[in-house]
Amino acid sequence: MRITLEIESSISEIPKVYDWLKEAIEPFVDSTLQNRILLVTQEMVTNAIIHGNKESAEKRVKISLATNRNEIVVDIEDEGDGLPPFPTKEEAQDMDYMEENGRGIKLAVMLSDQVIRENNRVTLIYYRNT
């Protein structure tokens, strides 16, 4: 399965992303994994809107979900200038969750099984057997 949602660069769009993603994964993902996916995706979409697209009404954020028997893959792509390098899991452990900057990246690194950063797109990979 592969589905895509495109939203405006507005924080008011976050509930739409949450509802869309929850409806898509709820039938086949346990609640623990579902919560990880929903939390990290919300944080990364928020980052795409605020930091990537600078909340520009002309820019969009695209969220794609792909699933197979072994993994769930969420892609978040904005129209910004690109993402900074992400920390390793070890570096992320030392980051403060309460800091305004970096929380979404820390959550992505710590709660996803794999994170791939490529220009203005981040790919979050979750393995079903973990």
Question: What report would you give on this structure?
Answer:
This protein has four helices and five strands, in the order E-H-H-E-E-H-H-E-E. It is α+β, with helices and mostly antiparallel strands and about 130 residues long. The two termini are about 20 Å apart. It is globular, with a radius of gyration of 14 Å. The chain has helices at about 15-25, 30-50, 90-95, 105-110, and strands at about 1-10, 60-65, 70-75, 115-120, 120-125. It has a single domain, classed as 2-Layer Sandwich (Heat Shock Protein 90). A hairpin with a 2-residue loop joins strand 4 and strand 5 (about 120-125). Helices cover about 35% and strands about 25% of the residues. The chain has a five-stranded antiparallel beta sheet with strand order 1-2-3-5-4, covered by helices on one side.
**How far is it from the N-terminal to the C-terminal residue, by CA?**
20 Å
CATH class: Alpha Beta
Query: What is the mean predicted local confidence, pLDDT?
Result: 89
Q: Which descriptor suits the 3D outline?
A: globular
Q: Based on helices, strands and strand pairing, what is the structural class?
A: alpha+beta
Q: Order of strands across the widest beta sheet? A: 1-2-3-5-4
CATH topology annotation: Heat Shock Protein 90
Would you count the extended β strands for me? 5
CA-based gyration radius? 14 Å
Percent range of helical residues: 25-40%
CATH superfamily: Histidine kinase-like ATPase, C-terminal domain
- Poorly predicted runs are none
Tally of DSSP helical segments: 4
Count of discrete domains: 1
The CATH level-2 architecture is identified as 2-Layer Sandwich
Sheet-strand content, in percent, reads 25-35%
Main sheet attributes: strand count, strand direction, barrel closure: 5 strands, antiparallel
Give me the strand/helix succession: EHHEEHHEE
